């Protein structure tokens, strides 16, 4: 019952409440060039898309339950986790919990299969190729839609770079910062992102908060381009399709590039 309520709530948020809240109460103006206004505009567009996805995800779990589907790993059918998506401690969490069944399928049948055939002496290159292939397959499954493909491939690069940085931080500060904790579903052979050996350490909390804020900005930036009110036919120019990104000079991609160089130096 509660899933039906959440599904309908997300539907209402997606089609009217988010736009009403940002336009009427936060006074978001699409034509204003102030930094705060630009960020709120991007966040509004991304939030509308995400809440629409939550509606579909929860509705699908309701229909699956009604049709008698049961998971062998968990009594509760899980597709997405909105709270994790809206407060993302890591982009890896976003990738896993945006669409959990699809993530599991891509990981098992694409990522792990590609990883098998890599050179055992070049693990980093193998992982990079496996990640790229996985997101390429995901783009194909989405019909190679221009904006979605750009978002997916960007997210692949973002996630890989963040993974590299946080892995190296974990190796440098093992008593403060541990990267992974085992998932409670061991048969999935998956992991839960980011636990700490010292939860009261100020460095741990500051680092987590920094990554969370950065991830919120990244998701607002990436999601802003998926504005379904904008025509995306093949006659539409690149500039028109990616106007929200060009408006802010692709700053999020440059942040990712800086983080990539930092990961090399660590």
UniProtKB/TrEMBL annotation:
Its EC number is 2.3.1.250. It comes from the Eukaryota. The keyword Transmembrane helix applies. GO terms for biological process: lipid modification; Wnt protein secretion; Wnt signaling pathway. It is a multi-pass membrane protein. Belongs to the membrane-bound acyltransferase family. Porcupine subfamily. This is Protein-serine O-palmitoleoyltransferase porcupine. It comes from Schizaphis graminum (Green bug aphid). The gene is por.
